[in-house]
Amino acid sequence: MDWVEHAKQKPEDGQYVWYFFEITGVAYGRYDAEGNCYYGHNGFLCGDVTHWMPAPNPPETDPAKITHLTGGDD
Q1: Distances (CA, A) of 62 to 58, 59, 70
Q2: For residue range 56-73, what is the model confidence (pLDDT) as tens digits?
Q3: Cα–Cα distance for residue pair 74/29, rounded to 1 Å
Q4: pLDDT confidence of residue 41
Q5: Pairwise CA distance, residues 49 & 36, whole Å
């Protein structure tokens, strides 16, 4: 996958991507087409992102095996 210049092409609404802003570097988040913003763990950026790259789909897992949400096996 290659970086896409934001000015030339935008992600699909709701698409999860890696995005780049010169001051903060690379971040992971979701694109919102209505506001032309990227939302990540550290907040959001509107108008400052220069490049983005599609994020791969997460691996398929059995939700019952995810223990960080339930506290593990009791």
Answers
A1: 12, 10, 14
A2: 877 777 767 666 655 555
A3: 33
A4: 85
A5: 10
In sequence order, which residues have a C-beta less than 8 Å from that of residue 4 and are 6 or more positions away? 11, 51, 52, 53
Distance CA 8, CA 2 (A): 14
d(CA 34, CA 13): 8
Place of tokens 């698409």: 15
| Integer CA distances (angstroms), 35 to 2, 31, 74, in order | 24, 9, 44
- Beta-carbon count within 10 A of 38 CB: 26
Residue 34, phi then psi, degrees to nearest 5: -60, -45
